[in-house]
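Figure 2 data, in text form.
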Amino acid sequence: MKTKYILALLPFVWACNNSTKEMKEEVEPKKAIDAHSYADPSQSKVTHLDWDAELNFESNTIRATATLSLANSSEATQLILDTKALTIEKVTLADGQETTFKLGKEDANLGRSLTIDIAPDTESVSILYTTSPTAEAVQWLNPTQTADKKAPFLFTQSQAILARSWVPIQDSPGIRFTYSAKVKVPSNLLALMSAENPTEKSADGVYTFKMEQPIPAYLLALSVGDLEFRSIGDRAGVYAEPSVIEAAAFEFEDLEDMIVAAEGLYGPYQWDRYDLIVLPPSFPFGGMENPRLTFATPTILAGDKSLTSLVAHELAHSWSGNLVTNATWDDFWLNEGFTVYFEQRIMEEVYGRDYSEMLASLSNQDLKEEIAEMTAKGEAVDTHLKLDLTGRNPDDGMTSIAYDKGYLFLRGQEELVGREKFDAFLKEYFTSNAFKVMTTEEFVLQLEDLYRKNELSMDREKIEAWIYGPGLPADAPQPSSNKFSLVGDQMDAFMSGTPASELTNDNWSSHEWLHFVRAIPEDLSLQKMTELDQAFGFTKSGNSEVLTAWLEQSIKHQYEPAYDRLEEFLISTGRRKFLMPLYRAMILTDEGKQMAKAIYVKARPNYHFVAYDSIDELLKE
């Protein structure tokens, strides 16, 4: 995804002066430039969305009216929205009169601006429109692409800037609004949004929703399917297809404990409920932190709760990201670095330090590998925490740098000032900045206050090296796990001649097995690969993390007995985290590239845009 885009740099000025009417909400006093939005909130800012929509599963389109409440400056003449492949039929004002509008020039990444003529006293506009059947945020699945194979399914993925492909909106992480909705779907399906949700199907297929807490557009979400609900706590529950609901309820039964642990660390959960929905396999991410309704991949249903750190991660986003949000996608690490740090603290609280250190060690392995790859390709600038994504797709910044380098930076600050002081700082950070946006520069100023209040000296040069410098500084924390040392001993024993069947691996967690598979030497013989597979059944593994690591090793070692499972996995799984390393491994050889392209022809129709957009780029040569 290295295509260069022409981006319009528009002022993203938060201080609005409205002398004609009272502002509908407090406007943030921060300033930022969002290179990925046409919006100009200094003139007119969206404060509330009322969405009235009907879904058509035959044409794969949504016909809707989006009514936007506005806060305007005293000189406002235009409301500027982001759209992508929307057919705009008409725009009306609050009194029902049509107003003039203009669509801007098409940009491959940004879509088109929608400029609507307004006056300073314009309170709202209503836009009647239809989405494209290929709207990038929306995936329409036929019954064969679902778990139960009985009914169609729909889900959206708005992050980073895809909300504009299904709602005309100011699609910037720094602009928050509340919303309400009425959605009509086929009567045999249940509709859910990132809002207050029903737990049962309605007889007429009409559902109403309300989100009272202000959110940015990337957290707008919709899912429709043959779904059931199961309560797993006072504030938590899970939605899934009927054949999946039992497994999902078991896998997530510790969720209430996670919520309590999170609140104990950094303050009250401010979104009322925390529910999850397990989506069909084509969902491109592990999870998406849509408020009140986390979207989750079925690949985390391992049967032993071993992959539920993903749930802790998405829960942590209820504070970092959803509550305090990066002002622009250049500051993405503020969402994800904080969330990984918070996730690790939740996992430590619920499952213990040994367990969380295994997770941190695995992530550190991934981070170092990605830094090496990016540096080798001349992309060291992308290993900075603070990015410059001007002219690029913001998805380019969604790497392990934001997540795991960000985590290590915050962990380092904890180690410098002490956990107790750092916890107090973070709790105050989430409380005082709730429902606001944050820039990297503003965060550094608040971090400086932490040092000053505790009469400590902050090394600004080191801070800047972390944020604005490449790779990992020499003093980066090094997560370590004694359990992994024992795993290493067993690999050494295997390489020294101990049969695989005689290795000591009693009670290993999936994290230890993953570490073991990753440690397979590059020169391991096919005979030894066969021995490992026969002893431990890696090719048949039901744990998606372990299986992906084994399949990657199988490609590198040309272990053909795993190739059928490789093809099956790539066709049935849409999670980009698993797809990319497997396709990358295949294209390293001519034979592998041919295999990759042959599988991709079968698999691509099952992938969401977010996934196939990346893989198209990878396989285009």
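Caption note: Confidence is low (pLDDT under 50) at residues 1-30.
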